[in-house]
Design a protein that fits this description.
The chain has 202 residues and is α/β, with parallel strands linked by helices. Helix content is 47%, strand content 17%. The strands form two sheets. The chain has a six-stranded mixed β-sheet. A two-stranded antiparallel ribbon has the order 5-8. β3, α4 and β4 form a beta-alpha-beta unit. The longest helix is centred in the N-terminal third of the chain and has 41 residues.
C-alpha cells in the first residue's frame, strides 16, 4: 500500500508540474500573439505619392479602379468605409480594385483604424502632392478609373454601396462611355480639410 501511495503522490506531483508547464507555455504563447497583434496594429502604413499611385493605377489596366481619400478622424469617412469593405468582397474577383489613401497626419493611427474597420484592400498614406493631383478639397473623396485607365469620375462625398455598385456595373461593361451620365454622390457635411496645410506638412 505504501508503494502504491508513493506512486500516487509522485504521479499527482508530476501531473501538477505538467499542468503548470502547459499553463506557462500557453501564457507565453498568448503574450507573444498579443505582442505580435499590437506590433501589427502599431506599424506605420507606407506612403505613396502621385507618381507612384498613377503607376499603380496604370498597372491595373483592364480593371475598374477607385481611389478613396479618407482620414480616420472623419465621421463621413467612417460611415463610408464599411460600404467599401462590402463591395470589395463582392467585386474583387470581378475586376475591381479599391485603393484608399489616408490624409491623417500620423501614420501610426491608420493601421489600428484599418484593423477596426476590417479594411482588406490596399491602404497608403497620401503623399503631399496627392491632394493637388486629384483636386481634393474635402473628404471623403472618390476617383474612379475605367478599364482603359481613363479617369472618369472625381467627386467628394460618400459613395455608398448602391452608388459604388452602379458605377462598377457600368464601368465593367467594355468601352462603356460615362459621358453625360450623372452620378449623384451622397453629400453630407464633408470633413473640413485644408489641402494647403496637408501639402506643407513636414
Amino acid at each position: 500500500f505504501i508503494t502504491i501511495r508513493c506512486h500516487s503522490v509522485l504521479g499527482g506531483e508530476s501531473m501538477r508540474r505538467s499542468h503548470l508547464v502547459l499553463l506557462a507555455a500557453r501564457l507565453v504563447l498568448g503574450l507573444a500573439m498579443a505582442g505580435g497583434a499590437f506590433a501589427a496594429a502599431s506599424k506605420n502604413v507606407s506612403e505613396i505619392d502621385a507618381g507612384g499611385l498613377l503607376k499603380r493605377i496604370n498597372g491595373e489596366q483592364g480593371k475598374v479602379v477607385v481611389v478613396n481619400v479618407f482620414a480616420s478622424w472623419c465621421p463621413p469617412c467612417r460611415v463610408e468605409v464599411p460600404d467599401l469593405v462590402a463591395v470589395n468582397k463582392k467585386y474583387a474577383d470581378k475586376g475591381v480594385v479599391i485603393i484608399s489613401l489616408s490624409v491623417d497626419e500620423d501614420s501610426k493611427v491608420v493601421a489600428p483604424f484599418m484593423k477596426t474597420m476590417n479594411m482588406d484592400y490596399p491602404v497608403y498614406m497620401a503623399g503631399r502632392d496627392i491632394t493637388k493631383a486629384f483636386q481634393v478639397s474635402s473628404i471623403p473623396h472618390n476617383v474612379f478609373y475605367a478599364k482603359s485607365g481613363q479617369r472618369v469620375i472625381s467627386e467628394p462625398g460618400i459613395a455608398d454601396t448602391e452608388m459604388l455598385e452602379m458605377v462598377f456595373n457600368k464601368l465593367l461593361v467594355q468601352n462603356y462611355d460615362v459621358t453625360g451620365t450623372i452620378f449623384i454622390f451622397r453629400r453630407v457635411k464633408d470633413c473640413a480639410f485644408s489641402p494647403a496645410r496637408f501639402e506643407s506638412r513636414a
